[in-house]
Design brief:
This protein is an alpha/beta fold. The chain contains 17 helices and 11 strands. Helix 3 runs antiparallel to helix 9 and helix 5 crosses helix 10.
Length: 446
């Protein structure tokens, strides 16, 4: 197999959809090498409504273009070629930004500078404005196995919004959470081209990609195919905060969960795919702490959920329990829930008290942004972690634990106590793209 790092061109070879099997095929290649074919299966795919044909074709092409980021990053060639169809300026601009920002962490970790080096070719006039497709009023709610999407589900239930729990892949943990919601379920399968893993083993460029953007594009296809007028993600406003600044560029591990990306894709979909399709995050007005406060009351999910990313690896080992207890996600969720759960509740969820384990000190320091930058993970802002830790330091049941004691004696004296209040971080922000019919969730979430 050719070395993608030596390739001059990355090719978007084409995409297709087999209505009989519900399988979409996305084809890519480096130079004139063998095709890399990704397969995505939409189960029991219905006959496509003719009124949605143009929207479906546009959604499939968008998925082809966005999912290509997984393969492009293996070689990062200087030239990008889109075959079989042409894209307009708006599409090229969206992709340029997505690939640059979504691969920001990848570039940082691999010591690459991608600025000015990602240029999608413009080969078409501006697209005709998208029209309404008559999509039925109902919401697709992506389930990730963690706390956020379960909070969204319960908020939608409170206001009586018709919704379906959807997830991509074959995680048994996510399936159990989806089943527990009591909502109708949709499980979409995604098979990454196996050759990509071989290229990685042979030394191709590898690293973080904007997975939420890929899943978003998959769900856009699903919304048009099955008939949903809303895709309700569960990204809180903390996701817009950069992980670090490097060489004049903000690097955000969660860029495709940020409000910037949400707004870009929302606008693009309504102008290029379907004017009556809403894409948004239901939890955008909330901080991570505000979400965990709400989740603390959803005890029916406490024995099922997990935010530990080691549970969701494509390849490699997974923890025997739902929580490895060692990764930044475990550290953050434990810390964020602690102000809102009793200590016995939290220890029962995790099987141990992470805040009374001195070996975890460096992990919690990174969350506090003490001598470290925030971890490259989907965790809250440093100010949220500091506020949560300060709150625990004031409570008898937590203040004697090793990590909390160290915070009190070593870190707290260096902080401005007036900036550590929990209450301001629990107030909703004004920034969101919720459609009018769903703004009632802001009242239901209080």
């Amino acid at each position: 197999m050719n070395d993608p790092c030596q390739a001059a061109t990355f090719r978007f070879v084409g995409c297709s959809f087999d209505a009989s099997s519900g399988e979409a095929q996305l084809r890519y290649a480096f130079d004139d090498g063998a095709e890399l074919i990704e397969r995505i299966v939409f189960p029991e795919a219905p006959t496509l409504d003719p009124a949605r044909r143009a929207a479906f074709d546009a959604a499939l092409k968008l998925l082809h273009l966005i999912a290509g980021v997984s393969y492009f990053k293996a070689g990062v060639p200087a030239q990008i070629r889109v075959e079989k169809y042409a894209i307009d300026r708006d599409t090229a601009d969206l992709l340029d930004e997505l690939y640059l920002q979504g691969l920001g962490e990848f570039a940082y970790q691999n010591k690459l500078d991608l600025r000015g080096k990602i240029r999608f070719p413009v080969g078409a006039e501006n697209a005709t404005a998208a029209v309404s497709c008559g999509l039925p009023r109902r919401s697709l709610v992506p389930i990730g196995g963690g706390k956020d999407s379960l909070v969204s589900v319960e908020l939608l239930k409170k206001i009586g919004e018709p919704a379906t729990a959807v997830w991509v892949g074959n995680s048994a943990l996510i399936a159990a959470c989806a089943q527990a919601t009591g909502l109708p379920m949709l499980n979409i399968q995604r098979q990454i081209a196996p050759e990509l893993f071989e290229l990685n083993r042979q030394g191709a460029w590898n690293g973080h990609i904007p997975v939420t953007a890929i899943n978003s594009a998959i769900l856009v296809v699903a919304a048009i195919l099955y008939g949903f007028d809303a895709i309700a993600f569960s990204n809180e406003h903390s996701a817009s905060s950069a992980t670090l600044e490097y060489d004049g560029q903000a690097i955000n591990h969660q860029w495709s969960k940020s409000f910037t990306f949400e707004r870009r894709l929302h606008t693009y979909l309504q102008s290029h795919v379907a004017a009556d399709l809403d894409y948004f995050s239901l939890l955008r007005p909330l901080s991570e702490l505000a979400v965990t406060k709400r989740f603390a009351h959803l005890t029916q999910y406490h024995a099922l959920f997990s935010s530990c990313n080691r549970n969701f690896r494509i390849l490699g080992t997974r923890p025997a329990d739902r929580w490895c207890g060692q990764c930044p996600k475990c550290h953050f969720v434990f810390l964020a829930l602690a102000p809102f759960c009793t200590k016995p509740q939290l220890v029962q969820i995790f099987g141990r008290n992470l805040l009374d384990d001195e070996s975890q000190t460096a992990g919690f320091d990174a969350l506090l942004e003490y001598r470290h930058h925030k971890p490259f993970e989907c965790v809250g802002e440093g100010r949220e972690s500091r506020a949560a830790m300060y709150t625990l330091s004031q409570r008898a049941e937590w203040r004697e634990d090793a990590i909390v004691q160290r915070f009190t004696h070593e870190i707290l004296p260096q902080l401005d106590v007036t900036a550590l209040a929990l209450a301001p971080l629990l107030q909703p922000a004004a920034e969101h793209l919720l459609p009018a019919r769903l703004t009632a969730v802001l009242d239901a979430s209080g």
